[in-house]
UniProtKB/TrEMBL annotation:
A GO molecular-function annotation: DNA-binding transcription factor activity
InterPro entries: DNA-bd_HTH_TetR-type_CS, Homeodomain-like_sf, HTH-type_TetR-like_transc_reg, HTH_TetR, MftR_C
Keywords: DNA-binding, Transcription, Transcription regulation
Pfam families found in the cross-reference section: TetR_C_14 (PF17754), TetR_N (PF00440)
Residues in the DNA-binding region annotation: 34-53
HTH tetR-type domain residues: 11-71
Lineage: superkingdom: Bacteria
Protein name as annotated: TetR family transcriptional regulator
Entry keyword annotation includes Transcription: yes
Amino acid sequence: MTTGLRERKKLRTRRALGAAALELAVTHGLAEMTVEQIADAADVSPRTFFNYFSSKEEAVVAADVERARDSAERLAERPLDEPVLDSVRAVMHEMVGDAPRSREWIAQVRLVKSEPSLVPQQLAAYAAAEAHLTAVIAERTGLGAQDLYPAVTAAAVMSAMRVATTRWLESDEHGDLVGVVDRVIDLLAVGLQSPPSRAP
C-alpha cells in the first residue's frame, strides 16, 4: 500500500515522538518526563505533539500501535494460499528478528509493567491492533469482519504474543524469543482441547 508524501511525513513525526517518549520515560521515569521534553527531543513544538497524541502516556505506547500496523501490513502481503497461522508465524519471526524494534518492544513492556498508569493506554493500543488484525485476517480468508473466525484468531494471536513476551522476560535465561513465539503459535495451531503432555 502506497502513501503520499504528506502522510509519510506525518508517520515519521508520529514515530519520532513515540520513540522519544519511550526513551525519555525509560531514562528519566514517566512522572518526570514532560510533553515539552518529548517535543524537543523530536524537534517539534509542543503544539505539534498534541496534533498526534492527547497525553505523554499515549505517546509512550505509540510504538505498539506502529508495530501492530506493521505486522498487519506484513501479514496482508503473505501468499494468500498460505495458512493463516503459518503466515502469522513468518511475520512474528520477522518482527522478533528486527533487533532495534525488539529492543523498543521489550523496553515498552518492562515500562508498562512498572508504571500502572500506562495500562489503560496499553489496553487501548491492543484493542486497536486487534481490530486491525481482524480486518486483515477477514480479507485474507474472504470472510466478513463480523464473522467469528477472524475475530477469534486475531484475539488469540494477540494474547499468545503477550504471553510469549511476558514469559520470555520473566525467564531466568532470556533465551530464544523466536522459540517461545513458535511454542505459543504451535499451541494455537493444534488447539486447546487437550494440554500438551509433559516430557518424562
